[in-house]
C-alpha cells in the first residue's frame, strides 16, 4: 500500500492529506531516520545540514503521536500531540508515502526521511530534492509563514467580495494573479488554465478588465474544478499512485492544459499555446475572450 504524488497543486495535496489522515492519524512515531539532511534544514534554494540538525529532528519526532494532517494552500501540516508540527512542502517532486512494512520500500531510491510508526512506516521521497520537511515548535511561526496567502477555495468561508476586490484591483494578468496566491490559494499552472477555460476568459486578461459576471463565474468555478479533481485523485499523470495501485484520473478530464495544438473540445478550434507568467499557457482563442 502506498500513495505518491508529483508536481502537486491544491487537489493533489488535499488528496494526500485525506489519505494520510486515514493511515497515520493517532499513530506514534517510534523512530526517525534522515538520509538527506538538507530536506529538514530550511526552505530556501540554498540549504545545508547544520551541526546536529538531523539528531535534533530525530529527537523532535521521537514518541510523538500524530493527531492530524492539515493543509494550508499547497503545504501539509503534520500535527503532534504536544502542539508542535512538521511543515511539509513537496515543491516539484516531493512525496509522502505510507507503507505497511519496511520490505515494501527497501531498495527504493531518493528516500530521504523514514518514520517508523507503531504500525507501518511514513516515508518522504524526493527525486529533485526541492521540497522540505521543517520541525515547527513555535505556534506563531505558521501564522507568519502563511501571511499574505489568499482565501482557501474549499472553505465555507471562501467569500466573493474579498476575492473580487483583490482580482479587480490588479493590472497583472488573471493567470499571474492565480499563480501569486494572494486572491485565492492552490491554483498552479494546471488549474489556472482549466478555470479560465471553463469561464471562457483568456488567462492573459488583466484582473481589472473583468466584469461582474466573469468574476462571479471564476469564483464559483474554482472550487467546483478543484473538488472534481480531488474526487478523481488529482491530475498528476505519471506518479500519482493511489493506495489501491490506481493513478489519479483527472488528467483524462483536462480540457486545455497540456493540449496546445490540439482541437478545442467545445468548438474544434486549434488550442493556442504560449509562454505567459513564466509558464506554458494553453487557451482557446475562439471560446475564451
Please give a quick description of this structure.
By secondary structure, the protein is of the alpha+beta class.
Structural notes for this entry:
Strand 3 and strand 4 form a beta hairpin. Helix 1 packs parallel to helix 7, helix 4 packs across helix 7 and helix 6 crosses helix 7. The chain has seven helices and ten strands. It is 26% helix and 20% strand. The protein is α+β, with helices and mostly antiparallel strands.
H and E string = HEHEEEEEEEHHHHHEE
Largest sheet: 4 strands, antiparallel
What gyration radius follows from the Cα positions, in whole Å?
20 Å
CATH homology-level superfamily of the largest domain = MutM-like, N-terminal
Total DSSP helices: 7
Q: In total, how many beta strands? A: 10
Q: Which fold name is given in CATH as the topology of the largest domain?
A: N-terminal domain of MutM-like DNA repair proteins
Low-confidence stretches: 1-6
Distance between the first and last residues' Cα: 46 Å
For the largest sheet, list the strands in their spatial order. Answer: 1-6-7-5
Structural class, from secondary structure content?
alpha+beta
State the domain count: 2
Overall mean confidence score, pLDDT: 90
> If classified by CATH, what would the architecture of the largest domain be?
Alpha-Beta Barrel
Content of β-strand: 15-25%
